[in-house]
Amino acid sequence: MKDLKHLIYFEKLLLEANNELVQQAQKDGKVCVGYVCENTPEPLLNLPGTFSARLRAPRTGSMEIATYYLTSFLCEYSRALLERAVEGGYNFADCIITPDGCSMMNRCVENMELLKAMGQGKEHFFFEYMEIPMKGDENGLNLYTLQCKNHILKPLQEHYGIDVSDDAIRRAVAEHNRVCELIRAIGEFRKGDRPAITGYEFHVITLATYACPKYLLIDKLEETLEELKAREPLDPKAYRARVLVVGSEVDDLDFIKLVEDSGAYVCADRYCYGSLPGRDPICLTDEEDTLTQICRQYLRRGQCPRYMDMPKMIGRREYVAQLAKEYNADGIIYEQMKFCDPWAYEKMLGSHILRQEFGYPVLAVDRPYAIATSGQMRTRVQAFVESVEIKKIQKGGAVNG
């Protein structure tokens, strides 16, 4: 299969947190809003005059300093971010906003602030911490809306003079929706027996929309979509099983690559930094203020184990089963970052229910932040792919290759 025209460009952007598009947007006079969790509504970070950059720590090596402050029992994502901040890797950000999606990320950002690891030389730099509801009801919506108002809109206006009016928010939603529509349209090419894009390629493109200013990516996304319409589909013999990857954040390019190199085609992505439901467009009406509508939709569609009321917990497993059916997945890989408490419980229960009640083969794994070349993980994925093939043969189904 011929490489996509902009794939190497997207990969290059993901090599550094302070990539060339972040630098270009700041040269354009825009304020860089750093954030660390999908529970922070993106359109509110991309108002006229601002752009969002979800913090990552590509090419992470030693995390000794962060481990000293956070201990070795916190997830490697939080430790990798703190390590990179101490190294000065996030000095490009003009502020950072974090919700209490988990206590580990809160501790990470709190240590950034205590160590003065960010904001050097930036007079208006600020840290903000949001309280996020644990239930998806109306009380939760009221809390969510108030927190977004007090910890996103208000400080951006006070520190940088950003327009936070309803009209400005609607313009941000329009740009956000355009990116979502393009990603979803590109993702449609993963369906069917002969997909036109690999799971790795899709992961790279989607990840770039989180790590880079969206307005500078739209033209490349449009060109990629047109390119896919005429692209020769993937040979069915190139993969042995279609898998849905579910779980905590995945911003490591090597993990998806490892899965696909092991013979599985990643047909759908229900993880933090993914497109499902992270790239769902936001539908607005004129009957209610835009902020409340955004918060309601983020609250309702959120698949984070932070939400612990029964409808949300049951809904998370039903959502995964629905995606597996829609994208014709043969099996599910349920992953979590090592020491991630919320996803550890979710993975344990979710993988059992999806296996026992919905009948899908499930591989449950925990993984390091930067997986690089893990022989153990590769062996486990390969064994899972073989087991899926055997199940398909036993059921009389056809096996690719």
The main pleated sheet reads as: 4 strands, parallel
According to CATH, what is the topology of the domain at 20-154?
A: Rossmann fold
Shape: globular
Rounded average pLDDT: 95
Helix count equals 14
Strand order of the largest sheet: 2-1-3-4
What does this structure look like?
This protein has helices spanning 7-13, 20-27, 64-70, 76-86, 103-114, 138-160, 166-187, 199-211, 218-229, 253-261, 290-301, 310-326, 341-356, 375-394; strands at 31-35, 50-54, 95-99, 126-130, 241-247, 264-271, 331-337, 362-367. The chain is of the alpha/beta class and 401 residues long. It has a domain at 20-154: Rossmann fold (3-Layer(aba) Sandwich). The strands form two sheets. Strands 2-1-3-4 form a four-stranded parallel beta sheet, sandwiched between helices. The radius of gyration is 21 Å and the shape is globular. The model has no long low-confidence stretch (mean pLDDT 95).
Question: Characteristics of this structure?
Answer:
alpha/beta, four-stranded parallel beta sheet
Task: Record the SSE blueprint.
Layout: H1 7-13, H2 20-27, E1 31-35, E2 50-54, H3 64-70, H4 76-86, E3 95-99, H5 103-114, E4 126-130, H6 138-160, H7 166-187, H8 199-211, H9 218-229, E5 241-247, H10 253-261, E6 264-271, H11 290-301, H12 310-326, E7 331-337, H13 341-356, E8 362-367, H14 375-394
Parallel strand pairs: 1-2, 1-3, 3-4, 5-6, 5-7, 7-8
Helix pairs in contact: 1-8, 3-4, 4-5, 6-11, 7-8, 7-9, 8-10
